[in-house]
Design a protein that fits this description.
Keywords: Signal. The protein is α+β, with helices and mostly antiparallel strands. It is built from eight helices and eleven strands. The chain has an eight-stranded antiparallel barrel. Helix 7 runs antiparallel to helix 8. About 40% of the residues are buried.
């Protein structure tokens, strides 16, 4: 079994409680609430090594290349409106601009298909067969890279600032957070704000959350899992719908064949969510939340990005055309312990139902 390599920050998150009386594992149950979620983008300490060809160009640079400022002035219809139309109604193909992919052959993620091919990566720990084509797509777009990328900053900020992105895990039938061959994990959407320290920046364990049964009932999922050496792994389920808000615009992501790998203890959890992101959902979420104006701040050309998504998509072929409709990915996730107030009517087996969440709340 693969072992998670925990960083110093992870070790700080997973500090055990001071005494048995403070235990959060009660009657074989413990809850966790999401505090951080972002696409797994492997970065070394040298951008020129990760992206030796440089970073991909954004809307402003591409507009200047297509319509030079020292050339004839184009009409608004032929220039700005045409590009905006392509942005909201993209098609596969070539846009005439080079697209730079990350180099080095290393990525974080899962072996989703049980194969090791030339398209696959090795994990930082050396495990072969890692499927993360989304990293191949966004790894050399500056707006997606930390710590200063616009997507990196704002997508996590929304988790603390808004109640919309309130993903929770409820573990049941847990004999031990160190080793247990069979546990049940239920995914809920919560209703309440996160409990923070006096600064308002650090989310602390021990808060409570109600379960959203109005907008979030269709999002409930149940997974079979096990815990080995403090690491929870789960069997894949058909899909997970993740409420996803950025810049105050409600949206969602759909992760197919979703599975978890999380290092656990009584104060928190940290690890990865893996699977295949639905390409159209992924792209529409980005556009609904950001638009060309905001994407320009991160040099993110939506047109070029969509075409690369279609080139690198590697999952769930369309039954008629054979075109791949999803793309392998992983998300880095952090949780803190929370007490989940789940009414009896939430106890339903919902391993899949395929419904999308409402975007009203």
């Amino acid at each position: 079994m693969r072992r998670l390599i925990l960083s110093t920050a992870t070790a700080g998150l997973l500090t055990a409680p001071a005494s048995a009386e403070q235990t959060a594992l009660r009657n074989g149950e413990i809850g966790y609430v999401l505090t951080s979620l972002y696409w797994s983008i492997y970065q070394s300490d040298d951008n020129s090594r990760d992206c030796p060809n440089g970073f991909n160009s954004g809307p402003r640079q591409q507009y200047e290349a297509l319509f030079p400022s020292d050339g004839p002035a184009p009409s608004i219809v032929d220039a700005r409106l045409d590009l905006e139309g392509q942005t909201w109604n993209p098609e596969p193909g070539d846009d005439g601009f080079p697209f730079y992919e990350p180099q080095g052959g290393i990525a974080r993620g899962f072996d989703l298909d049980g194969q090791a091919t030339e398209e696959d990566y090795r994990s930082p720990e050396g495990e072969p067969g890692i499927d993360n084509q989304l990293f191949r797509t966004v790894g050399c777009i500056i707006g997606f890279r930390g710590p200063d990328g616009v997507e990196f900053i704002f997508e996590n900020k929304a988790i603390k600032d808004e109640r919309y992105n309130r993903l929770m895990l409820h573990l049941e039938d847990v004999d031990s957070l160190e080793n247990d061959p069979e546990v049940t994990v239920t995914v809920y959407r919560g209703l309440d704000r996160l409990l923070t320290d006096a600064s308002g920046e650090r989310v602390v364990p021990g808060g409570s959350q109600r379960v959203d049964l109005r907008w979030g009932k269709s999002l409930i999922r149940e997974l079979d899992g096990k815990i080995e050496d403090g690491v929870l792994t789960t069997e894949p389920i058909e899909d997970l719908i993740i409420p996803w808000m950025n810049l105050s615009v409600p949206s969602f992501q759909q992760i197919k064949e979703m599975r978890l790998e999380l290092a656990l203890n009584e104060t928190g959890a940290k690890g990865m969510i893996g699977g295949y992101a639905d390409v159209e959902t992924w792209y529409r979420q980005l556009m609904r939340n950001d638009s060309t104006h905001h994407l320009s701040n991160g040099d993110i050309s939506a047109i070029s990005l969509y075409k690369q998504l279609r080139r690198t998509a590697d999952g769930h072929p369309h039954p008629e055309t054979g075109a791949m409709t999803s793309i392998s990915t992983a998300l880095d996730a952090e949780f803190v312990q929370v007490f989940i107030n789940a009414p009896d009517e939430t106890k339903v087996s919902s391993r899949t139902n395929g419904e999308s969440p409402s975007e009203s709340e």
